Amino acid sequence: MSWSKLKQQLDSFLSPALAGTVAYRATSYRFSPDKSGSCYLTVDQKNILNMADTTTPIRWYQTDQEIKNDPNIVIAVSPEEIEAIRKETKGAVPEERLEIMVRGRKSTSHAKELLAAQTALSKSNFTTTATTFLGTSIEDNLESNDILLNILALIDRRVGKKRILNMSESIKMKHSAVQYFYELRRRTV
Fold this sequence. Notes:
InterPro entries: SF0329-like. Pfam families: SF0329. This protein is mainly α. 51% of the residues lie in helices and 8% in strands. It contains nine helices and three strands; from the N terminus they run αβββαααααααα. It has helices spanning 3-13, 64-68, 79-88, 95-123, 126-134, 138-143, 147-154, 161-166, 176-188; strands at 22-27, 38-43, 46-49. A three-stranded antiparallel sheet has the order 1-2-3, covered by helices on one side. A hairpin with a 2-residue loop joins β2 (38-43) and β3. The model has no long low-confidence stretch (mean pLDDT 83).
């Protein structure tokens, strides 16, 4: 699919509240056929999502320790998870330590998922991912581990106010890029 048709389709799904604020941009190199150029998202004409640009306001993680120590990422712990650790350790661990163990395990696995998603985003082709987005249900895009699919779904007009407001807890465990676009959309609903 050509860039102009893809952009036209993406623009048709953009939330009306974000029209004029969020834009899809692409650069290409006319005399260099082996260079496909790059695609990126802008908010108020500022480059926001482009992996090649280090001046974006989105935080890109280098290690799992950065993710574990980021105060913006909140790891929720359920009583069932604490009970599972209690059974696993056969009650040998003090009660106050159980929640710390659960949170530590979950943050390690979450850090690995976030770094894998971030790496996949840096290697992804925007047009391929956008085409996948257009052919997949909005629910699947929101639940995906792909950062770009999450972002495209969040700014989509098919995601309503109620769904946006109900996502506040689950969005805390997403990449900072997804959180940025969630906050942008939440302010407009």
